């Protein structure tokens, strides 16, 4: 125990450096709250840390000094970035000419009117307002397609307008004209690009997702990775595989050390190989802050493999945190840095006792395979929940399943790039083997994301996150006692597996006070608007009669005074017979566009059986049915009734409804396309709603600026798990979330109920 306390001195000093780096910029800015925060941190961390480590005053003093040092470093860093000629010119939105060195790869971003390339650059010279300044300060560059062709490390000359940056890590945002390269990248940048290109070429002949994932594993190059696969990786807790992490470096440098041992290198020579391997990895993966952070965490991982590794690694982790924060205090607010440190700390602190407990009744390799990903995931869980509002229930299982494939895929991908530099066919052989490995990783991500309870929602307030942190700490403390016995250990693993495979029951479904339910009917739409006890209006019926019938049964709906089919595509109309099963249907509204014919015919047959005559939704009409008031906003009364309805034409003719119930306003949009959305934006200027049914299953084709102006508290997306359409698009989901809207989707959340709670829209999932 005393040895462990001694090993925790440097990690505690690292925590002090972190606290100081967080408080430093606020203090320098002159905020009294920042000064109070710094004093509080000094007292709590210093005194508390000194008490924990044998109550030594020297430890408390060291912590106080570390907090102060990091705070000063962070304050000076913030002042250097925000108080310089570039920042001053940005405050005046000056037109400037700059000479700068490009320091990051291009990233495509979609704006309101155009697509731009985002780069980071280090300004060396700026001419503005008649004055020339020579300095070095980072800026964000927003440019046209020409910026995508500028090699990393090249020095360019360009003109543009400066604006204030949203980040405290850059002095300004430069909205730039076309660049002119005045100096090419150095030899190291050229060598890096050559190897990265060779890695991509070695797998280019394989399926797109596999070809995109191998470079991501090796050097963090995720160019070409599809949005839906990236979402699946996020859901299953595998996102760390898509970015440069300490694991990448550990695998790559570990491979080099093995080769060096085979070649007869021993002693200090191995340390030299390790150092050069780390430096080479930094150049390969780009010298961005995230890469340097990953290199430091990877070096800690390599230390853990040496003799007396845990003690060395714990001290190394503390030293790495201190060094990184003193060099780049901006990392203190970096999510990637936070997750890397927590994952490494979890593996070092929780992993060994969990492994030793499991090793009492299973092989060591199996115990380590379970303990390592579980410890890393548990340590990161509160932060991940704070970011995403979700807790993954399959992350440990998914990481456990992919672990055997990650190492060979990474090493073979790197080997493919190296061999490709010599002879292209040889590189493709190694690349093919690497893609076979990542095919398993992709399969696990796809399967895990499609499980009924892949993730659950979690509130992001301080109290909820504190509770989650306490639960995680309790699990970390109790796990060795549970896992050391085969009966309790096996039972715990089976419970974890069952939670992931079986959808958790929602007590009291439907929830009291529900206003709208989006039924989980797979890839299709079916919404239920409560109009009274046992009564509801149904908007669309999904692709399967059994699924919509089951949803209505669970809601105890016996009477449907109004059914609306927004348009006649199969995923909205083919389940309509299920609405009529054992229920009375009053009126039936449809789109004016009577296409495609199969959908019209299916609806006609079901309606005839129920004794109802379908009629076009009356444009502009408002009707009150029990608790709900429903207004038809689209299509207009002069819209076409015949036409090519198999594609976007039918979608754009979707019936759009505005529903008001219990003080909430809900916009139900069918599959309306951007053109129709643009017309609605003109007709409904200033519309403010509480709940949005995202058009067309969240596809990427949206008038996103208009959807964001609606200021919905909640957005609902009806989508089938693992669908082939890429629904919902990451750009659509992120665009809504960035405006403060909570996005729910049936493929992950199941059926979603909107509940009125204190005049606000709350959500309950099943």
Automatic annotation (TrEMBL):
Lineage: Bacteria, Bacillati, Actinomycetota, Actinomycetes, Propionibacteriales
Keywords: Cell membrane, Membrane, Transmembrane, Transmembrane helix
Top-level lineage group: Bacteria
Organism from which the protein derives: Nocardioides albus
Membrane topology listed for this record: Multi-pass membrane protein
Cellular location(s): Cell membrane
Protein name per UniProt: Competence protein ComEC
GO terms under cellular component: plasma membrane
Keyword Transmembrane helix: yes
Cross-referenced InterPro entries: ComA-like_MBL, ComEC_N, Competence_DNA_uptake, Metallo-B-lactamas, RibonucZ/Hydroxyglut_hydro
Domain Metallo-beta-lactamase: 523-723
Principal place of residence: membrane
């Amino acid at each position: 125990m005393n040895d462990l306390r001694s090993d925790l001195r440097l990690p505690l000093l690292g925590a002090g450096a972190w606290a100081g780096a967080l408080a430093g910029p606020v203090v320098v800015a002159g905020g009294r709250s920042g000064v109070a925060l710094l004093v509080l941190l000094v007292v709590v961390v210093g005194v508390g840390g000194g008490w924990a480590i044998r109550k030594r005053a020297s430890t408390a003093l060291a912590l106080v000094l570390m907090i102060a040092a990091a705070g000063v470093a962070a304050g000076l860093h913030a002042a250097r970035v925000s108080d310089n000629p570039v920042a001053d010119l940005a405050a005046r939105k000056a037109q400037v000419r700059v000479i700068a060195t490009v320091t990051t790869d291009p990233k495509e971003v979609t704006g309101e009117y155009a697509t731009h390339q985002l780069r980071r650059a280090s300004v060396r010279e700026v001419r503005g307002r008649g004055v020339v300044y020579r300095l070095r300060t980072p800026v964000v560059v927003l440019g046209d397609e020409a910026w995508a062709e500028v090699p990393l490390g090249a020095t360019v000359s360009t003109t543009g307008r400066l604006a204030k940056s949203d980040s405290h890590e850059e002095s300004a945002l430069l909205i730039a004209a076309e660049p002119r390269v005045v100096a090419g990248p150095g030899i190291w940048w050229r060598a890096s690009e050559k190897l990265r290109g060779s890695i991509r070429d070695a797998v280019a002949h394989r399926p797109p997702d596999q070809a995109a994932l191998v470079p991501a594993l090796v050097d963090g190059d995720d160019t070409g990775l599809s949005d839906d696969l990236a979402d699946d990786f996020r859901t299953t807790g595998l996102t760390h595989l898509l970015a440069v992490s300490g694991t990448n470096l550990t695998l790559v440098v570990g491979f080099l050390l093995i080769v060096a041992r085979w070649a007869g290198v021993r002693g200090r020579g191995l340390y030299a190989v390790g150092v050069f391997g780390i430096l080479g990895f930094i150049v390969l993966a780009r010298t961005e802050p995230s890469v340097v952070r990953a290199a430091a965490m990877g070096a800690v991982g390599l230390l853990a493999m040496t003799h007396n590794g845990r003690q060395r690694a714990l001290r190394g982790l503390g030293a790495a945190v201190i060094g990184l924060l003193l060099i780049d205090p901006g990392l203190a607010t970096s999510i990637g840095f936070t997750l890397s440190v927590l994952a490494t700390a979890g593996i070092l602190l929780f992993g060994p006792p969990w492994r030793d407990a499991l090793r009492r009744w299973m092989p060591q390799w199996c115990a380590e395979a379970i303990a390592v990903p579980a410890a890393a995931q548990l340590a990161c869980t509160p932060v991940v929940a704070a970011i995403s509002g979700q807790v993954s229930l399959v992350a440990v299982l998914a990481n456990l399943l992919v672990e055997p494939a990650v190492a060979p895929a990474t090493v073979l991908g790197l080997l493919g790039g190296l061999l490709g530099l010599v002879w292209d066919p040889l590189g493709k052989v190694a690349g093919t083997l690497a893609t076979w490995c990542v095919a398993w990783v992709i399969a696990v991500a796809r399967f895990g994301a499609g499980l009924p309870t892949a993730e659950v929602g979690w509130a992001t307030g301080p109290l909820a996150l504190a509770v989650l942190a306490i639960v995680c700490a309790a699990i970390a403390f109790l796990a060795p006692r549970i896992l050391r016995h085969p009966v309790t250990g096996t039972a715990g693993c089976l419970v974890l597996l069952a939670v992931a495979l079986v959808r958790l029951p929602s007590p009291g479904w439907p929830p009291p006070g529900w206003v709208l339910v989006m039924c989980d009917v797979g890839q299709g739409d079916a919404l239920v608007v409560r109009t009274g006890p046992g009564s509801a209006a149904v908007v669309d019926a999904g692709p399967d009669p059994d699924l919509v019938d089951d949803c209505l049964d669970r809601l105890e709906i016996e009477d449907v005074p109004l059914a609306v089919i927004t348009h006649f595509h199969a995923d909205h109309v083919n389940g309509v017979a299920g609405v009529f099963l054992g229920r009375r249907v009053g009126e039936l509204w449809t789109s004016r566009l009577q296409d495609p014919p199969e959908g019209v015919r299916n609806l006609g047959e079901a309606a005839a059986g129920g004794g109802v005559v379908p009629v076009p939704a009356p444009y502009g009409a408002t009707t009150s049915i029990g608790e709900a008031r429903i207004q038809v906003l689209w299509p207009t009364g002069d819209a076409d009734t015949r036409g090519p309805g198999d594609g976007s034409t039918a979608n754009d003719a979707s019936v759009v409804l505005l529903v008001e119930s219990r003080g909430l306003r809900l916009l139900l949009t069918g599959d309306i396309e951007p053109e129709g959305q643009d017309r609605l934006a003109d007709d409904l200027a200033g519309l403010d709603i509480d709940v949005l049914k995202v058009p067309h299953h969240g596809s990427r084709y949206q008038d996103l600026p208009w959807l964001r102006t609606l200021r919905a508290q909640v957005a609902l997306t009806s989508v089938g798990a693992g669908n082939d359409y890429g629904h919902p698009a990451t750009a659509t989901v992120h665009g809504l979330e960035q405006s403060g809207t909570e996005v729910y989707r049936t493929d992950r959340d199941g059926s979603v109920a909107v509940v009125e709670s204190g005049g606000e829209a709350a959500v309950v999932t099943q």
